[in-house]
Amino acid sequence: MQKKGHERLLKLFYSSEIDKPGCDLDGIFSLLDRLKEAGVCVELVDTAKMNDRELHEFYTTEAVYPTHGRHYRIGQIFGTRRKTGVFFGKEQPALLVYEKDAERPTDIFPHTIKGQRITIEEFLREKISETDCICEYP
């Protein structure tokens, strides 16, 4: 049985100092653990250790990158109209997806497409389902 997933890195940005983030962080950790067991590379980034300037710079250079080629929005999820990215990796955890050998992320969750929010949990459950199928049928 071959494990699938080494071509992708999932990078979760969250803050250990936020009591009630905008999602079920424990559930996300559990889903990420399942993907790690299936061979997917996972990296956890605790933004509590980053200053606001570093985090905002990362948001504006990396996190928004996937939105350029896709038709979805992240602005109102991770910030306000006046303060872009202010919630990124803090009040609103973020999952960045890097494909094999990509220097920049190819996807970010959560995001909104055609008025519907796609959550981190939905994406991870879908990947677990795909990984389970691949592992069962080599």
List the helices and strands and how they pair.
Layout: E1 8-14, H1 25-37, E2 41-46, H2 52-63, H3 75-78, E3 94-99, E4 107-109, E5 111-113, E6 116-118, H4 120-136
Parallel strand pairs: 1-2
Antiparallel strand pairs: 1-3, 3-4, 5-6
Structure description:
The protein is an alpha+beta fold. The protein has one domain (8-136). It has four helices and six strands. It has helices at 25-37, 52-63, 75-78, 120-136; strands at 8-14, 41-46, 94-99, 107-109, 111-113, 116-118. The strands form two sheets. The protein has a four-stranded mixed sheet, covered by helices on one side. 28% of the residues are buried.
Task: List its salient traits.
138 residues, alpha+beta, four-stranded mixed beta sheet, two-stranded antiparallel sheet, 6 strands, 33% helix, globular, disordered C terminus
Question: What would you say about this model in short?
Answer:
With 138 residues, the chain is an alpha+beta fold.
